[in-house]
């Protein structure tokens, strides 16, 4: 455990063994499951941890409070990596009151069969623990329908007064905590891109609910943000909030993502021509990905970062190359806005890739089309090379207009 401020403690755990978060997203640096304990006149837990870590979790709790009972458990989010220990906590502390909203308890009964010992709160309700008061703000669809956040405040004029936001998955990121817990104690360089990858892949579809949540908290001066994954934010609060504001508005940096599928290298060579032309036309931020080699979560992360996207793939079995079809489906599912799109394709004996990418954009993505699609039969020649160069230049010119 670690003291965060006054009577608030970190009692979370690290998971360095799981390879895929939610069975989907790679965890090269691990992940933390953050839980917090307020040891006031009343003792209150904020969220729990994945059930596999319960023994370690209980050791952390008892290190802070010894044999004291836990009076309340606030459940900000019911996803099992945060709610998984509820049933066992209730066995250890049978008198505990579980605090949540109406949708929280509907899910809790479904997941764990628990329907008693609950205290329902609505938006704006408060709970007094002693020196601290908890206030509850409902933030539905960030990123589940039951999500809420909890503010812990002290009375005005208190010598140790501060405001702590227990934010659930909001403001979280991938990456285990390597010793330090609070941002000012650690080098946060590895967390920034992992925050973008976390947001874009997990929360990214819900930009409007995130904006609604930020507006509800806009007038609150925060001293600490205690998310359920990643560091406790203190020194970098302004940067973290600004990053979420930017991403949830689908605002981007100037730059270009080029991603391609390739079987024998011909489509890849076309991607190289496009990239070189875009670079020569002035685009500095260019990232390139082979969709069969790079996990799509990293591609999606950079699509959220950069405004321009050019995709290309071969025709395969008279359809679009599978991994590109999957990526476009994933991008469509994120409801991304305000992007530019160019595309190209290749085929050996039956043309399909170019028209399939067109269909994805017309029916699902709705990105602004830039340049002219390039269709390559078998391999590049002088004409299609020139068309690829023109596509790269067209994207560069359009990006520079912004």
Would you write up a description of this structure?
The protein is built from twelve helices and 23 strands. The protein has 402 residues and is of the alpha/beta class. The strands form five sheets. It has a seven-stranded mixed sheet with strand order 1-2-7-8-9-10-11. Strands 17, 18, 19, 20, 21, 22 and 23 form a seven-stranded mixed sheet that branches. A hairpin with a 3-residue loop joins β7 and β8. The protein is elongated, with a radius of gyration of 24 Å. The protein starts with a strand and ends with a helix. The mean pLDDT is 95.
Which helices and strands, and how do they pair?
Blueprint: E1 2-5, E2 8-10, E3 13-15, E4 20-21, E5 25-26, E6 31-33, E7 36-39, E8 43-46, H1 54-65, E9 72-74, H2 80-83, H3 86-92, E10 97-100, H4 102-112, E11 118-120, E12 126-128, E13 133-138, E14 148-153, E15 164-168, H5 189-203, H6 207-216, E16 224-227, H7 237-248, E17 253-260, H8 266-280, E18 286-290, H9 296-305, E19 306-316, E20 319-320, H10 322-333, E21 340-347, H11 353-365, E22 368-369, E23 374-377, H12 382-401
Helix pairs in contact: 5-9, 6-7, 8-12, 10-11
What's the end-to-end separation, in Å? 48 Å
**Unreliable stretches, pLDDT < 50, 5 or more residues?**
none
Taking Cα atoms only, what radius of gyration do you get, to the nearest Å?
24 Å
How much of the sequence lies in strands comes to: 15-25%
Number of helical runs? 12
Strand order within the widest beta sheet: 1-2-7-8-9-10-11
Determine the mean pLDDT.
95
Work out the number of β strands. 23
Please state the structural category. alpha/beta
Global geometry: elongated
Largest sheet: 7 strands, mixed
Fraction of residues in helices?
25-40%
């Amino acid at each position: 455990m670690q003291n965060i401020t006054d009577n608030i403690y970190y009692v979370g755990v690290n998971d360095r063994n799981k390879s895929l978060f939610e069975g989907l997203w790679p965890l090269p640096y691990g992940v933390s499951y953050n839980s917090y304990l307020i040891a006031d006149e009343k003792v209150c837990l904020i969220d729990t941890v994945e059930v596999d870590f319960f023994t370690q979790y209980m050791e952390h709790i008892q290190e802070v409070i010894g044999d004291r009972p836990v009076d309340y458990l606030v459940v900000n989010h019911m996803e099992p990596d945060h709610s998984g220990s509820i049933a066992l906590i209730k066995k250890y502390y049978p008198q505990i009151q579980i605090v949540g909203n109406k949708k929280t308890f509907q899910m809790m009964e479904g997941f764990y069969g628990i329907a008693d010992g609950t205290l329902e709160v609505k938006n704006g309700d408060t709970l007094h623990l002693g020196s601290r008061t908890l206030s509850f703000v409902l933030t539905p669809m960030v990123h589940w329908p039951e999500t809420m956040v909890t503010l812990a405040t002290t009375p005005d004029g208190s010598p140790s007064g501060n405001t702590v936001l227990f934010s659930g998955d909001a403001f979280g990121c991938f990456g285990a905590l390597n010793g330090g817990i609070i941002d000012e104690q650690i080098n946060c360089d590895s967390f920034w891109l992992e925050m973008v990858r976390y947001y874009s892949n997990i929360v990214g579809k819900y930009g409007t609910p995130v904006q609604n949540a930020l507006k509800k908290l806009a007038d609150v001066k925060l001293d600490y943000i205690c998310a359920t994954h990643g560091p406790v934010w203190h020194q970098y609060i302004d940067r973290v909030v600004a990053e979420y504001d930017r991403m949830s508005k689908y605002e981007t940096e100037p730059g270009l993502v080029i991603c391609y599928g390739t079987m024998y290298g011909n489509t890849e060579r076309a991607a190289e021509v496009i990239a070189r032309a875009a670079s020569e036309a002035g685009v500095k931020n260019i990232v390139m990905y082979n969709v069969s080699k790079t996990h799509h979560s990293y591609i999606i992360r950079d699509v959220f970062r950069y405004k321009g996207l050019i995709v290309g793939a071969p025709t395969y079995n008279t359809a679009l190359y599978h991994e590109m079809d999957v990526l476009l489906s994933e991008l469509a599912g994120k409801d991304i806005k305000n992007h530019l799109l160019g595309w190209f394709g290749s085929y050996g004996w039956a043309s399909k890739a170019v028209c399939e990418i067109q269909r994805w954009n017309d029916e699902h993505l709705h990105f602004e089309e830039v340049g002219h699609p390039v269709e390559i039969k078998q391999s590049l020649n002088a004409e299609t090379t020139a068309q690829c160069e023109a596509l790269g230049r067209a994207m560069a010119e359009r990006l520079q207009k912004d």
